[in-house]
Amino acid sequence: MEGNSRCTPDTSQARVFGFIKMESLFTGGLLLTSLLQSVFGLKPKEVCLLQVDEGHCRAYLPRFYYNTMSQDCEEFIFGGCSGNANNFESIQECRKTCYTIPKIPQICRFPRDMGTCRALHKRFFFNMTSMQCEQFFYGGCNGNENNFQSQQSCVEYCMPSKSIPVICQDVLDKGKCSASIPRYYYSSATKMCEEFIYTGCGGSNNNFVSKQSCMDVCARKSKKWKVRRKITSRKLQRLAQNAQAHLQ
């Protein structure tokens, strides 16, 4: 309506963006992920790396987004229309979708800063949106620590090859109720999935209904490493046996 300064949420956009009407139809993380992929053409990781966008309308809808700087899901107020796919109705849904984003060292999360001088030094910085080390030109003074002499040094510091999902790094929290439910959590100390008793409410996201589901999410890399180590040990044994037979 002309002259009305209040923007009414566009229900046609709600169908496209899927976070006003359609999201209420999807309660499982897999269904939400499929929706994101089919409607936006985005993978879950790409969704989580989008910058927060409140939209241009004036509704007051508490939502959650993945903050690449804090590396966790945080609340924001959604205006009701436009925006982007980094927009979840609950912190649990946000974390289920974004748990695969690896932890990044603090200095790598700083934005690109060319400094206040005017030199043109070829440098590299870690881009939290693309999750890649990218080239930029450094002015020669000031700036910040997200500034590497080479792409290799940037990759080695900011993109460690061994990383586990964020959800697996949550501390063990048994909850605050009085039930006794056997669950499993990933222990960073032992690098294994271990049983604990969940009280039924509250707690952290490092909480799995079975040891297998915990292993599938958190211990996959260490599991593969153990398999490779066993294969290597067998190979060494065979080589030793062959060498001994040859000497005889």
TrEMBL record:
Origin superkingdom: Eukaryota
Q: Name one GO cellular component term.
A: extracellular space
* GO molecular-function terms, A-Z: serine-type endopeptidase inhibitor activity
Say where the protein is mainly found: secreted
Classification via InterPro entries? Kunitz_BPTI, Kunitz_BPTI_sf, Prtase_inh_Kunz-CS, TFPI/VKTCI-like
Which keywords appear in this protein's UniProt record, sorted alphabetically?
Answer: Disulfide bond, Protease inhibitor, Secreted, Serine protease inhibitor
BPTI/Kunitz inhibitor domain: residues covered:
48-98, 108-158, 168-218
As for subcellular location, the record says: Secreted
Record-level GO BP terms: central nervous system development; heart development; regulation of hemopoiesis; sarcomere organization
Query: Matching SUPFAM superfamilies, A to Z?
Result: BPTI-like
User: Which named protein is this?
Assistant: BPTI/Kunitz inhibitor domain-containing protein
Give the species.
Answer: Electrophorus electricus (Electric eel)
